[in-house]
């Protein structure tokens, strides 16, 4: 939804008690429940591109003497959204704090992918209620993907009256206005745009750390996998202009960042919405690889959009890492069809063959869902066999849980939970076995590690990651933090490596 549409859809408010209980009024104007038919036809709607974001003078100083706290759930995209909101808070004069007790504004930046993430948020809202009762002036807000779901907003309206504001993924740039309205209003401020978000450039950001940085290159997803809520919560695919992305990457390189991850819900669909130029992720990566930054990676990709040109560019190596996350979700063509993934087992394996042929050193990781509606034992075994055939380095594995508003939620969830759990256990055994084997291959090798700091388990040990995202623990000087160092691997565990820092020049694997 652009500004013109937003003004046309101004929230209707009513003071009488009867309408206060009529929660549907919020959704007549700010929310439309997911509709696959409507969403698939949404490509005709114009997405505006704004380069002129600025904090209005009327809001400057709003945060003077106030502190903010943001708790983030979910994916890297949410983490990056939090960086933007933190940047806006600082521009308004707020200071960050690490505790809710000390905060004047508390935001929960939420994830809608799985039910467990949703339950955590509602649990946290329950914990915040006594805090609000002790300090009525504190503002509590819910934002992110959960805010785009009608059932979530309804539940907050009915059961969590201590929440002051709800805003969606398309409304982050409106945070100063939302805060201002929350301070002035006596009722909950809700701003959730169900239509498409615009592309807003020049948003302030507070980066998390000074070693790795995330750069959004596109927003939304048009794939409509039957189990996924993202196309509804994040809107349609819309790409940033390449010159803006390249400028941001160059700026980060100049600031000393060593690793940059290009982000998108479906990152390799980048550029498909451009009408004036033919320009895709392969073209972008080909330009960014010339920037003086040690590592460039991207996530998350969809097999359907992984084209030959992108493979060709990635094969050039250099600062383009040879680790590719390529979610498969299932090894069964029949299950993939029900999931609406739009590729078969055979097509996925052919893509893997092309990648490995062009990039022999490539390591692949994936996402897998077990217990999808109608999944048979034979179909699950196909997933196991595909995993072994590809030889993934690791995988994120999940038990299927229906998300309200998705097509799959209307299917009969007919795989018993005990069967789902047993399948997950069997799959994880294979995942662990393959990970341990892959890790063992590193013993005796010298690898390049980007040092992130002290190990979580031992402050005397440093920890960092290889280009293939392998965690390495080793002893070394604290001054190595933020640097690329060579480490000889001495021992391998299932999910990490131990090593010794080497001074002499050595061939890096």
Automatic annotation (TrEMBL):
Instruction: Name the CDD domains for this protein.
Output: Radical_SAM
Entry keyword annotation includes Signal: no
Quick one: where's region Disordered?
1-21
Entry-linked InterPro entries: Elp3/MiaA/NifB-like_rSAM (IPR006638), Methylthiotransferase (IPR005839), Methylthiotransferase_CS (IPR020612), Methylthiotransferase_N (IPR013848), Methylthiotransferase_N_sf (IPR038135), MiaB_methiolase (IPR006463), rSAM (IPR007197), rSAM_horseshoe (IPR023404)
Q: What is its EC number?
A: 2.8.4.3
Q: Report the catalytic activity.
A: N(6)-dimethylallyladenosine(37) in tRNA + (sulfur carrier)-SH + AH2 + 2 S-adenosyl-L-methionine = 2-methylsulfanyl-N(6)-dimethylallyladenosine(37) in tRNA + (sulfur carrier)-H + 5'-deoxyadenosine + L-methionine + A + S-adenosyl-L-homocysteine + 2 H(+)
Residues that bind [4Fe-4S] cluster 1: 75, 111, 145
Q: Which Pfam families match?
A: Radical_SAM, TRAM, UPF0004
Q: Family per UniProt?
A: Belongs to the methylthiotransferase family. MiaB subfamily.
What is the purpose of this protein? Catalyzes the methylthiolation of N6-(dimethylallyl)adenosine (i(6)A), leading to the formation of 2-methylthio-N6-(dimethylallyl)adenosine (ms(2)i(6)A) at position 37 in tRNAs that read codons beginning with uridine.
This chain's protein is named: tRNA-2-methylthio-N(6)-dimethylallyladenosine synthase
Q: Which organism is it from?
A: Priestia koreensis
Kindly list the organism's lineage: Bacteria, Bacillati, Bacillota, Bacilli, Bacillales
